[in-house]
Amino acid sequence: MSAHARPSRLVTPPLTEGQKARRRRILHASARLACRGGYDAVQMREVADASQVALGTLYRYFPSKVHLLVATMQDQLEHLHAALRRKPPAGESAAERVAETLMRAFRALQREPQLADAMVRALTFADRSASPEVDQVSRQTTAIILDAMGRENPTPEQLSAVRVVEHTWFSALIAWLSGRASIAQVRADIETACRLIELTAPEEER
Prior knowledge:
- The chain is an all-alpha fold.
- It has helices at 17-37, 44-51, 55-61, 65-86, 94-110, 113-125, 131-149, 156-177, 183-199.
- The chain has a domain at 65-205: Tetracycline Repressor, domain 2 (Orthogonal Bundle).
- 71% of the residues lie in helices and 0% in strands.
- Helix 5 crosses helix 7 and helix 5 (94-110) packs antiparallel against helix 9 (183-199).
């Protein structure tokens, strides 16, 4: 590396308790605004006012609305994960449990379609600058699926199947939000993708 070269992204120190509380207020304000009016309703100044932080402070946490709404989706998934741990999905097979888990996630988003649409649009618009936030959403989704599978140490083949399931879930959500798929079609697509999980299970577990 030359003397003038700099790393592309600096390591961020851990947040203090006060900063964590401020971040939670921002994410809750973002979700409330999106619930009321979707993507267009989430304006950075209004988020700052609703969360009682200065606009400059908000931009230090989230450089744009896209960053903010992707982080909001990660926060929503984190709450869902906690709820799933309190009441794990039923099902004899890993595929059944994952399908039920993802349908529970879908139904949670279905209850707040404006919020779901805002978060999905942000994920779709996200560029490389929002990669850390997008990666957090992916890691949270993967953790939810692996918990449903009952798998702490998945094989590379299982992780590949999980990625396919994630892509299918996300695509099915977009199709439903745009009116191109019914809830029955969403369930059918998710259940079909989840069968890959059984195909990648070790021989002794089939």
